[in-house]
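sanity check both lines:
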Amino acid sequence: MEPVWSALGQASGVAAALAIDLDVPLKDVPVSKIQDELVKQKCQLFFYADLPGDSPAYEAVQKLSLLGAVNSMEDHQFEATNLVRPDTDQNYRFRPDEAVTIGEFARMVVAGLDIGLSITRAHFTDVPRGHPAYKYVETLYDHSTQSLEPFFDYEIIKDSNTGKKISVNAKPDQTVSGAYATKIISGLLKKKVAISSNSDTILTRGDAAQMVYHYLKKRK
């Protein structure tokens, strides 16, 4: 419990200092300001064993985690052998160097950019109700189909003989390139955003978090 006590003490000190700086009662200090300052001080509000404070993606991942925009422990099943092993348990790892998938990126942009959820029905065979990315993929689909320039790609499979539609796939486990990520963000924000220099390369989870956080800050 020592790390928890230390974090609580740090948060209390930050809250007290902000109350003095803002000249407001302690209870009126915005939680978001306390969180912002703690992240600046490299306090781990969300613990990831593979994401130290000097990581380029540290601030972005911490802030997006607070918004529920990245995979967290609730998305995984704990294994009995790993319950007290945060050094080996994947529940305590962000995996910043792994390629981000469409399902993961959908969650990042929808929750990270505070895009209103829009779920008209289950459109995709490979993202049924109950899938971790369901509400985020469906939101991208709905916003895309309502746009003058659709930005969310999906695949329609038809029977080669009858031409009848067999399935519609969003491919949630497929990786995301910088160009495709830019296309999605542009569509959601309804404006063209700059294409990154590595637009043709596959985004890592760390790069994707930084990209989304960049545009989150610009919206504030």
Summary: The chain has seven helices and two strands.
